[in-house]
Design a protein that fits this description.
Blueprint: E1 4-7, E2 10-13, E3 16-17, H1 18-25, E4 29-33, H2 34-47, E5 53-58, H3 65-72, E6 77-80, H4 83-91, E7 99-101, H5 108-117, E8 121-124, H6 127-139, E9 144-151, E10 173-174, H7 178-185, E11 191-197, H8 208-228, E12 232-234, H9 251-254, H10 258-262, H11 266-277, E13 283-286, H12 290-293, E14 297-308, E15 313-317, H13 326-330, E16 336-338, E17 346-352, E18 361-369, E19 376-379, E20 400-405, E21 408-413
Parallel strand pairs: 4-20, 5-6, 5-13, 6-7, 7-8, 8-9, 9-10, 9-11, 11-12, 12-13, 15-17
Antiparallel strand pairs: 1-2, 2-3, 4-14, 14-15, 14-19, 16-19, 17-18, 20-21
Helix pairs in contact: 5-6, 8-11
Bound molecules: pyridoxal-5'-phosphate (PLP).
Length: about 425
């Protein structure tokens, strides 16, 4: 579901023409729809109304301050994976006491900072980490609230780079070892065992893996609650979205469309999980990222050249893998649509960036409307794991970001000036 749609032949974000934004702010340009973000959050939040819960937006999916602030305004909590993300949340007006600190490699400095800020929980991923948190808390004369991430060893049926809940990967503590870990952690005086956490992967488009994981941990979390007085269970994020085709006829029609029928809706998710979770009597935490931000953003790019080789029609655009790495990194599909729709035949096209890597493409041999130099294209569903994964590879500036609400648009991050890319660098003294 989202609020990017055509009005006549013009692609609009809510009430604003995307072409106007592209001309005003230049390209490559990320454009976010605040209404889409907010409705995703509210849909999920309301679907879970039957159980005490906190939706913690996964900041790593889109950490623009404006995005965080919009969600904080709705009472969202935040799932953070670094001290930097916690600083961002605070800068955006979010509440540290609604933050869950995840990640396998928390440093002492990060733990100290998060303790001082009073995060709701440290989601620990190993015993050495629990010991470290205990040590830092002792030094600060505090008690650290912790949960341990259990690896339930279920297959999430998603891409290998985003599967996290099997024993093949680095995340969490094996299911069989969890009780021993809690027993030992309960002896560490500066820890408070507050919850249990899991996260089985990302872009999961069916309820079954979530249900399987929840069913598997239910007896475990019930025992841990009795023994250690846990107050929450986090069931992680990972709710998948529709990438193909993202552009349906309009928001109202969307949930009734064929695409929506195959996808995980908050209602389907809640209908299967809430009845399992409610009897636990625990607060339920969720950590969705992509579900909230994915379809709330697009990447707008300009066609620089149309290059026809004997066999191919290349559209060389001004966005590249440094702006949006998902196709290169995850073999991800992004729908590509013209910002100004024209009648005419489709041409099998490769949309590629200017970077000197053969992996720098957004699609290959895809039927697309015929395009000319200067046309704008939109890569849909680029709101999650888009700008946040950008780099300045090839000394290319980080793109600009715009937030739209109704008929208003604001530049929420200007394009990075190119000199800023090397502003902290210097020649070694012996080279002077
Ligand atoms: C990445 C991550 C999430 C969010 O994943 P999405 O697929 O974007 O919902 C949630 N929890 C943890 C621990 C993560 O690492």
């Amino acid at each position: 579901m989202h609020y990017f749609h055509y009005t006549g032949n013009r692609l609009c974000c809510e009430g604003v023409a995307v072409e106007t934004l592209a001309r005003k702010f230049g390209t490559p340009l990320y454009v976010y729809s605040q209404r889409t973000l907010e409705e995703h959050f509210k849909d999920l939040d309301q679907a879970l109304a039957g159980v005490e819960h906190l939706v913690c937006f996964a900041v790593k999916s889109n950490s623009n301050l404006s995005v965080l602030r919009a969600l904080a305004g709705l009472g969202s909590g935040f799932d953070i994976v670094s001290g930097g993300e916690l600083q961002r949340v605070i800068a955006a007006g979010g509440d540290p006491r609604q933050c869950a600190f995840a990640g396998v490699g928390k440093t002492e400095g990060e733990i100290e900072y998060a303790l001082r800020q009073g995060v709701y929980t440290f989601n620990a991923e190993s015993e050495p980490e629990l010991e470290r948190i205990n040590r830092v808390a002792a030094r600060l004369k505090k008690q650290a609230p912790v949960a341990v991430r259990v690896n339930p060893d279920v297959e999430a049926h998603t891409h290998k780079k985003i599967t996290t809940g099997t024993y093949e990967n680095k995340f969490g503590v094996a299911f069989e070892e969890i009780e021993g870990v809690y027993a030992r952690a309960s002896k560490l005086r500066h820890l408070r065992l507050r919850g249990l956490q899991m996260h089985i992967g990302s872009q999961i488009t069916e309820v079954a893996p979530f249900e399987e994981a929840v069913r598997k941990v239910l007896p475990l979390v019930t025992r841990l609650k009795e023994r250690h007085g846990l107050e929450f269970l986090s069931i992680g994020g990972g709710l998948g979205i529709v990438y193909k085709p993202a552009l349906a006829s309009g928001p109202a029609a969307w949930w009734r469309s064929a695409a929506a029928r195959d996808i995980l809706t908050p209602q389907k998710y809640a209908a299967r999980l809430v009845p399992l979770l409610k009897p636990l009597g625990l607060r339920i935490l969720l950590e969705p990222g992509r579900f909230i931000s994915g379809n709330a953003g697009i990447l707008v790019t300009r066609v620089e050249y149309v290059k026809r080789t004997g066999r191919k029609n290349f559209l060389i655009v001004d966005a590249a893998m440094n702006d949006l790495i998902r196709p290169a990194f995850y073999e991800a599909y992004h729908e590509i649509v013209p910002v100004r729709r024209k009648a005419g035949a489709m041409v099998s096209s490769d949309v590629v960036g200017p970077i000197c890597e053969s992996g720098d493409f957004f699609c290959q041999d895809r039927p697309l409307p015929k395009a000319r130099e200067g046309d704008y294209l939109a890569l849909m569903s680029a709101g999650a794991y888009g700008f946040v994964m950008a780099s300045s590879y090839n000394t290319r500036s980080l793109a600009a970001e715009v937030m739209v609400k109704g008929n208003r648009a604001a530049l929420v991050r200007p394009r990075q000036p190119v000199e800023d890319i090397w502003s902290g660098e210097a020649a070694a003294p012996w080279l002077k």
